[in-house]
Amino acid sequence: MQSDAIFLVAGLCLLLAVALPRVLGKVALSPPIVLVAIGMVIGLTPLVDGIPLDPVEGGTVVEHLTELTILIALMGVGLALDRPLFIRSRASWRAWSPTWRLLAVTMPLCIGGVALLGWWVLGIAPAAALLLGAVLSPTDPVLASDVQVGGPADPERDGLDAEEVDEDDEVRFALTSEAGLNDGLAFPFVYAAILLASAGTFADWGLKWVTWYLVGKVAIGVLAGLGVGWVLGKVAFRSWSSSLRLAEQNEPLLALAALLTAYGVGEVASGYGFLAVFTCAMTVRAAERHHDYQRSMHEVVERLERLFTLLVLLLLGVELTNGLLANLDWQGVLVGLALVFVFRPVFGLVGLGIAPRHQNEPGGLGPRERLATAFFGVRGIGSLYYLSYALGKAEFPEARWLWSTVAFTVVLSVFVHGVTATPVMEWLDKRRAETGARAR
User: Fold this and answer.
1) Which of 130, 168, 217, 421 is most solvent-facing, going by the fewest CB within 10 Å?
2) Is the pTM of the predicted complex or chain greater than 0.70?
3) What is the pLDDT of residues 200-239, one digit of tens each?
């Protein structure tokens, strides 16, 4: 009966993954909201009897399922971003300025805000408070599709200069690029919480954390992604052998091969594999911007991403009605509300308000765009992964409370941002169309 139920749930998930985006296309309800709700209903039926649903006891399964989902999403995000990033071009780096400010200012402030709230106000142990801030730091716009960029564009076919792609939609670009990078950049802070719980005070491990976990592993991950992406890009588009030029054969499974290779190389080299995957995807995208093969690869990844994302959310809904929120208290509710409605919007505005570019320049955001970008910091599958990963590396007595709090925050974010994404982005798009420029 247990295996039959698993097949039934998997089949239902696949059916919904295909149908929901079209059914809900004109409704202010995102598919993730519906999937979580359906999962909650399934969780009340006998279908789940005998299926292990405890994320603490079954943390390894949760970790690997969410890990694979994130990897697929990162590959899709990297392939979807059209705006180039030229290492030697200062103008190119400045065009990404909203992303850098969200990563360098907003993300650490959100981690610190949640950690201080948990430790100083609510009295949670310092290691658990830091872990809570770290696991809730990655954003995940794939859970609200209206706030992410679409698939790869062809500048030549669409009549655009290669450096002008996506520059009419700074909000979607900033949120998508932020999510692509902060899924990997959250790792150092998760490791800091693990070290705090298992290796003593900051004085004991602080220097190693800064030099290795914060700098060394980030650099290795980025370099691994650049190397794998460069090699695969050369092979796919410019190989001396026609049989190796996969772009001419339109074989989109190269995207999956690149994903696994980049992640493997990054992890074997002791770097951050998430950063390697995202960097690899961007490098493959940069290898040839005028080829339909980019869209073919993105379509394959996008379908897998949709399937795995909705599967995770369906299972999350099932667990919500099977004890996942049993340890939720007013403190956990306060953390979730503070992050979604206070910390992210306020710290987002702080970060985006530091040395902003003029709104008519690439990377420039008007007041309304800054407000929307600051608000739509969707929390999702990355938080579930990091929590299960950390709990498998160190002992946290607050494990069940952490799961209840993180699950509540993710569901709150999915609902709030899923309901508001469509009307807000449509309003911004309308303003942009009326003015003939980015909405201000």
Assistant:
1) 168
2) yes
3) 888 889 999 999 999 999 999 999 999 999 999 998 888 8
- Asked if 129 and 396 touch (Cβ cutoff 8 Å), the reply is no
With H, G, I as helix, E, B as strand and everything else as coil, classify residue 410: helix
Closest CA to 311 of 62, 145, 59: 62
Contact 334, 122 (CB under 8 A): yes
CB neighbours of 308 closer than 8 A, spacing ≥ 6? Answer: 65, 68, 69, 72
CATH number given to 2-435: 1.20.1530.20
Q: How many CB atoms lie within 10 A of CB 66?
A: 25
- Amino acid 181 reads L
Q: Which helix (H) or strand (E) holds 207?
A: helix 202-208
The answer to whether the CB of 52 falls within 8 A of the CB of 326 is no
The DSSP secondary-structure symbol of 209 reads I
Calculate what percentage of the chain has a pLDDT beyond 70: 87
What are the start-end ranges of the H helices in 211-358?
217-238, 246-249, 254-268, 273-287, 293-319, 330-338, 344-352
Listed by start position, the domains of the chain span: 2-435
Distance CA 328, CA 407 (A): 9
| Token pair of 420 as six digits | 């508001």
Residue 214, classified by CB atoms within 10 Å of its CB into exposed (0-12), middle (13-18) or buried (19+), is middle
CA distance 278 to 76: 8
Tell me how far apart the alpha carbons of residues 211 and 109 are, in angstroms, rounded to a whole number.
21
**Is 155 within 8 Å of 81 (Cβ atoms)?**
no
Q: What is the C-alpha to C-alpha distance for residues 58 and 295, in angstroms, rounded to an integer?
A: 37
